Amino acid sequence: MSTQKKTVWFEVEQGESIETCLERMAAQGYTAAGRKEEPLFEEIEGKYVPIRQVIKFKGVLLD
């Protein structure tokens, strides 16, 4: 029996393409089953400013 989790969230790293992230998932035995995006904020001079969009893929373990 595999010790890998059935579902894992993979984050697209800064400077990494979506395609590269999907290839990394596949190399670990996962396929994309969902996607979510979240804004990443940084506090600048007392105001929260969005600095980038964080993209995550829900990976489901292939049998």
Automatic annotation (TrEMBL):
Pfam families: NETI (PF14044). InterPro entries: NETI. It comes from the Bacteria. This is NETI motif-containing protein.
